[in-house]
Amino acid sequence: MGAIKDAMLRELTLRGYSRSTKKAYLNQVKRFVRHFMQSPEQLGRTHIHEYLMYLTARERVSTAYRDQAVSALKFLYGAVLKRPLVYEGLPRPKKEYRLPQVLSAGEVRRLIEAIRNRKHAAIVMLLYSGGLRVGEVVRLRADDIDSDRRMIRVRMGKGKKDRYTLLSGVTLEVLRDYWTTYKPGRWLFPGGRKGRHITERSVQRVVENAAKRAGIHKRITAHTLRHSFATHLLEGGTDLRFIQELLGHKSSKTTEVYTHVTRKDLSRIVSPLDRITSVNKRKGTSQMTPKPKH
């Protein structure tokens, strides 16, 4: 398996796959091999189908996880082992359609106010005010902060693309205070290991702990702040096309999901129950309340 792993890693690297994708694909293949305790060269189409059934029926993994397993196995047998017939017609799970979790403006404020560490506060404010992915914020360098233009340069974001996004004035002041106090080197947010940036998991813990201290009971991650950034811009009247550019989305369809969570238009609609209640109030009748059972 060692030689196959090395060959797969080489192919992934040559094709420009991201660090996180390489890690995910290798872990998927490792799990597949461990399940049968045989080399993938000795396994075939029937084994893949059996394994996918196992993930679905026994492990009850998410649709996204199973889809990733399919992609990893197709890459293994197609790009590395050169056996494309093994995965021909391999079924992919029907995609789930889930709306992103979004914080209100008040919840974002409480989250930030719950952070006492300057470094952590700067990271969280950048996540929200610039709509950054957690992998992008941990890899920021000092020269990525354009204080004169109030912009943040994101180097090689998802899809291997550079882009610029917003730098708020409030965040800039916090960053200046942080810079004076910490004086970071190569990375804007160095980690515990010398020469390395802060880890994505560390940032996730910062957000989770801040949410607990702020009394926010929603299940949120660092990515929730990116969703909130996009939704709040849309509610504020920013054109969807500009939001797409700021987020670095390749397709406008990806950005359009935020039209389903914004209150911009929904807030104008009055619930029929509230309308009935308001009519009763104007007529001088009592409000509708559930009658207690005796």
Tally of discrete structural domains: 2
Q: Estimate percent helicity.
A: 40-55%
pLDDT below 50 for ≥5 consecutive residues: which ranges? none
Give the full name of the CATH homologous superfamily of the largest domain.
Intergrase catalytic core
SS summary, helix count: 13
Task: Using the coordinates shown, work out and report the CATH topology of the largest domain.
Answer: hpI Integrase, Chain A
Structural class: mainly alpha
Oligomer: single chain
- Main sheet overview: 3 strands, antiparallel
What CATH architecture of the largest domain do you see? Answer: Orthogonal Bundle
At the first level of CATH, what is the class of the largest domain? Mainly Alpha
Measured on Cα atoms, how large is the radius of gyration?
A: 24 Å
| Average of the residue pLDDT scores | 88
First-residue to last-residue Cα separation: 71 Å
Task: Provide structural commentary.
By secondary structure, the chain is mainly α. It folds into two domains: 2-86, Orthogonal Bundle (DNA polymerase, domain 1), CATH 1.10.150.130; 105-260, Intergrase catalytic core (hpI Integrase, Chain A). It has helices spanning 2-14, 19-36, 45-58, 63-80, 105-113, 118-130, 134-137, 169-182, 200-213, 222-235, 240-247, 252-255, 272-283; strands at 145-146, 151-157, 161-166. A three-stranded antiparallel sheet has the order 1-2-3. Strand 2 and strand 3 form a beta hairpin. The chain is globular and about 75 Å long. The mean pLDDT is 88.
Helices and strands in order:
Blueprint: H1 2-14, H2 19-36, H3 45-58, H4 63-80, H5 105-113, H6 118-130, H7 134-137, E1 145-146, E2 151-157, E3 161-166, H8 169-182, H9 200-213, H10 222-235, H11 240-247, H12 252-255, H13 272-283
Antiparallel strand pairs: 1-2, 2-3
